[in-house]
Amino acid sequence: MPAPRDIVIVIYPGIESLDLSGPASVFSTAGHAGGSDRYRIHVVAAEPGAVPTESGFDVCAKGARGLPKQIDTLLVPGGLGTREAMKDRALIALLARLAARSRRVTAVCSGAFLLAQAGLLDGRRATTHWRYAALLARLFPAVSVASDAIFIRDGNRWTSAGVTAGIDLALALVEADHGRELALAVARELVCSVRRSGGQSQYSEPLALQVAQTPRLERVRSVLLAPARKRMVVKSLAERVHVGERQLRRLTQREFGQSPRQLLLGARLAQAQQSLVDTDRPVRAIARQCGYATTEAFTRRFRAQFGVSPSHYRAQFRRTTSPTEALP
């Protein structure tokens, strides 16, 4: 049997523990399922010792000395500690050095910010948790950010969305190394999908749950969320908030990173999401409610946005109790 592949996971204070343990479980299970040690995991930090996690417990990390000269996979988890870690020059320098020795470089969730800070994603496509995608794009314009991907591969750079998406990423790495049969065996053992349906936008908060930063844009948000008697267009939205269409485009692009038309479409789909989760209304009735002429047109648009059909979305996220019944 070939020698085990060396997986180096670099951690820092405030990591999300599942970003570490999820991929590590995939790699270790691949060894159990295959009947041999296919991967060897090294957990290291810029300063060896006990490293506190976001979950409240410590992880013991080794120093980078003693690592093999050739690393198969470098993996950087995310977590609430990412912001401070971006200021840690020793950590960023360590990532750059280890990346130069690695066959592939990967990150889970906000770990992408650390790769970007080290210049390792310049000119590459990458993703991160949906909540932080716009910030990643703003801070690192040399990175092409895809906000809806569960994971992305660009050459030997792999990045994933948040938390459990690290498991999706690790399964994809196992599949790339050893084939789909082993990846399926690992997924069955861990009781998860080898590749989930749709993108991460289906898990993100709809516009209804977001807050605008200025009074004028709060009016935009309020109008979009108000029950519509008829389908709204950009001109009528601008009139309702007392600005010109050009000014509205500048405002929404700066605040939300979207055009007014995209916001209107998003509001209709957010309304549909809410109805699918909270009501028993047929899909055709929800389509009409959201301004679509036919169920087919609504289904096509919904699938294009979220990667799943309205029926699939309802089955996945349907509330088993009403919001009132769920209160203690």
Automatic annotation (TrEMBL):
**Keyword Nucleotide-binding tagged:** no
Q: Tell me where in this chain the HTH araC/xylS-type domain is found.
A: 218-316
**What's the domain of life for this entry?**
Bacteria
Q: Does the keyword Chloroplast apply?
A: no
What PROSITE patterns would the database entry show? HTH_ARAC_FAMILY_1, HTH_ARAC_FAMILY_2
Name recorded for this polypeptide: DJ-1/PfpI family protein
Q: Which Pfam families match?
A: DJ-1_PfpI, HTH_18
Q: Which UniProt keywords apply?
A: DNA-binding, Transcription, Transcription regulation
TM regions (residue ranges): none
